[in-house]
Amino acid sequence: LKDYESAERDLANYEKLSRQFDRLVVTLDVSGTDIGEFQKNNRQNQEALKTLLNDSRRFDDLKRIEIQVRDDEEQHMTIVYEGEALRQKMREGFSTYAKREAATIQIAEHYEIDATAYQESIGHISEIAGASDEWQEKINGGPIRSPLVIAVTPGEGRYGDTLQITGTHAGGKPGAPVDIYVDSRLEATVTLGDDHTCSHPYRVGRVLAGPHLAYAVAGSTYSEVATFEILTTDTAITLALAEVNGTAVACTGNLTTGNRSVALAPILIRVSDGTIATAETDRNGTYKKEITLPAGEHTLRAEFHAAGYPLNASESAEETIHLRGEGLSPLPFVAALAALIGSGWYLRRRASRQEEYTDPSHEPGIEPEEEAREEAVSIEGLPPREAATALFHALRARLDIAETKTPRDCAKIAPAYSRFFERYEMIRYAGETPTDEELRWMEKVARGEDEHEA
Questions:
Q1: Among 104-118, 141-155, 316-330, 389-403, which stretch is predicted with the lowest mean pLDDT?
Q2: What is the pLDDT of residues 62-81, one digit of tens each?
Q3: pLDDT tens-digit series, residues 351-361
Q4: HEC letters along the chain
Q5: CB atoms < 10 A from the CB of 197, how many?
Q6: CA dihedral (89, 95, 100, 106) positive or negative
Q7: In this structure, are residues 161 and 149 in contact, taking their beta carbons and an 8 Å threshold?
Q8: Residue 357 falls in which region: left (phi positive, over 0), alpha (psi -120 to 50) or beta
């Protein structure tokens, strides 16, 4: 059985065990201490198994390649150095994985969870790590000493700390590139100085707590593996609420560890009605989120679950807010006000025209009725629709129909003029625009000059 196949099986079994415990958290009275301890160990163990799975596959490849390149000394030494780096890394991973056995097994047994698969995985990892030792012993007579040496100082740190990774390559050429790896991932490429040394500042960010490994590669030369420890620290998260409008609440807060901000971290906001929203801190550790909620009282809490961080999870204090709900729209009031203003303007304009029509100071020889008729139908310079309105008012006045009557009312009162009133109704309410020919006809009807065509 290949080593990485054992790791795959162990990872699948462990994930099954984790799901069992997650279900128990819901169905049993599991203490907060047990939950926190198990979830922390759970995350670290799963990450360790995934890393071991990848390392096992690579180690299997190295064993195959080593056989193929034995006649090429340079390539052979490259494989040997990388194999040594992997061997040390796998040894460190096994050591920390095994240290968590007691706490994990104790919690599992307390809640009657079968942890046999987890205990077996420790044996498998030990065998895999031992196999890497045997292979290195076989091809090189034991651990090798590389001319490229690195160290990490200080040997431990917390979130936000900066550790210095330094290297020395006695046989290297000044100006040559040196790749620095942390946990088998390329961290940086630096240049070898005139004194054959190099350095890189490593800032502790989103990495798991526990032991980590660093090594360097210069051309075909691999350094030995340097180890360092990342320690866990507590966090604190705040939550403040503010009503944006009747249906939304603005959530703001900060996530810190000690006096440091936690940047680009996922935040979960939990609402008492079951609503869950997510946010992310900016580079200053501040998060903002607007949530739309129904009217009424709501209690909210912010949570940081620390997945992938060397930090402990935290929750904010619960905050309560009362939302008024969506109020009455102001649009109907605005429309009513506009209509009132328009009516007042129209009445003033009509009164002004009526005063002009009934001005007693008319020329001698012209009867007041004839003067009003001529003035009432004057549409010169008016837009087509306003001209039609003026002619409607003139005809309605000439027929002595009350001003409160609509065009449809007028058509019923004076059916002889129904054609005129029906056409105006379309102009007034349907928004149609009368033609010049229609206006000339309406003007004749309003003046009483073409009554037989009304």
A1: 104-118
A2: 777 766 766 776 666 667 66
A3: 555 554 444 44
A4: CCHHHHHHHHHHHHHHHHHHHHHHHHHCCCCHHHHHHHHHHHHHHHHHHHHHHHHHHHHHHHHHHHHHCCCCHHHHHHHHHHHHHHHHHHHHHHHHHHHCHHHHHHHHHHCCCCCHHHHHHHHHHHHHHHHHHHHHHHHHCCCCCCCEEEEEECCEECCCCEEEEEEEECCCCCCCEEEEEECCEEEEEEECCCCCEEEEEEECCCCCCEEEEEEEEECCEECCCEEEEECCECCEECCEEEEEECCEEEEEEEEEECCEECCCCEEEEEECCCCEEEEECCCCCEEEEEEECCCEEEEEEEEECCCCCCECCEECCCEEEEECCCCCCCHHHHHHHHHHHHHHHHHHHHHHHHHHHCCCCCCCCCCHHHHHHHHHCCCCCCCHHHHHHHHHHHHHHHCCCCCCCCHHHHHHHCHHHHHHHHHHHHHHHCCCCCCHHHHHHHHHHHHCCCHHHC
A5: 17
A6: positive
A7: no
A8: alpha
Spatial distance between the Cα atoms of 14 and 393, rounded to a whole number of angstroms: 90
Contacts of residue 16, defined as CB under 8 A and 6 or more positions apart, other chains included, come to: 117
Closest CA relative to residue 150, chosen from 172, 133, 131, 130: 172
Domains annotated on the chain, with CATH: 1-144 (no CATH), 146-232 (2.60.40.10), 236-323 (2.60.40.10), 358-453 (no CATH)
